[in-house]
């Protein structure tokens, strides 16, 4: 019974981490949209900014997860980054009916999310 409650609390905690990272993503994307509207940024700069937003959100989720779990921080941070990417991919597939919505290269974005989540977990 106690193990079941502990696992349930881990799931709820990860959902909170992912919710925080997606709120951060939405806020940063709105900020980017304001800059795009105000300054007419090029496509290259917007693409770079979106990648940096992925890095920041995955890092924050990994940082929070690593700090909470305490042991094997890198693993928990990597899990947070992978879950962030998985939800990003699922939303992209539902909205765009294809994976082209998140980027041209899925493997690169996956590695970026997993790596920044791992780094956040190690520093957490």
Folded structure, characterized:
The protein is an all-alpha fold and 124 residues long. The chain has four helices and no strands. The longest helix has 38 residues, at 2-39.
Fold topology:
Layout (H helix, E strand, L loop, with lengths): L1 H38 L3 H27 L3 H24 L9 H18 L1
Unreliable stretches (pLDDT < 50, length at least 5) are none
- Can you give the helix content as a percent range? over 70%
Let me know the largest β-sheet: none
Strand content: under 5%
Oligomeric composition of the shown chains: single chain
- Class from secondary-structure proportions: mainly alpha
Distinct helical segment count: 4
Name the helix and strand elements from N-terminus to C-terminus, one letter apiece.
HHHH
Kindly provide the radius of gyration, computed on alpha-carbon positions and rounded to a whole number of angstroms: 15 Å
Number of DSSP strands? Answer: 0
In short:
This protein has helices at residues 2-39, 43-69, 73-96, 106-123.
Quick tags:
mainly alpha; 4 helices
């Amino acid at each position: 019974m106690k193990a079941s409650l502990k696992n349930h609390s881990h799931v709820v905690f990860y959902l909170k981490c992912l919710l925080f990272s997606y709120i951060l993503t939405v806020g940063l994307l709105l900020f980017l949209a304001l800059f795009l509207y105000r300054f007419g940024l090029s496509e290259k700069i917007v693409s770079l900014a979106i990648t940096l937003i992925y890095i920041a959100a995955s890092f924050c989720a990994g940082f929070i997860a690593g700090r909470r779990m305490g042991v094997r921080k890198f693993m928990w941070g990597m899990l947070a980054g992978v879950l962030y990417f998985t939800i990003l991919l699922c939303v992209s597939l539902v909205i765009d009916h294809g994976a082209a919505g998140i980027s041209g290269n899925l493997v690169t974005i996956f590695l970026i999310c997993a790596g920044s989540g791992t780094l956040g977990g190690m520093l957490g």
